[in-house]
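ugh ok fine here u go
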Amino acid sequence: MTGLLQEKFIKAIIKVVDRWSFEQCAFCEDGTMVSIEGMIDYRCSRCGKTMNPVNYLVEIAKIVLDYREQLENKKDNNKID
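structure:
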């Protein structure tokens, strides 16, 4: 189970990093970034959310927190058994 959990974790992190690298939206599938005139940040052409590096880091942090919670739940379940 831990191997599967680690594999899902790695794939989720890679997905966000790839989106960041290719300037795609961190929140939706197939969202491309469009420059907002006069601003440094970009906006997603699909969902309309403004994107900056912090958004990608927040998404990565959410994945890490979820992974840690799942590991803790697995440990707690193993102690009960």
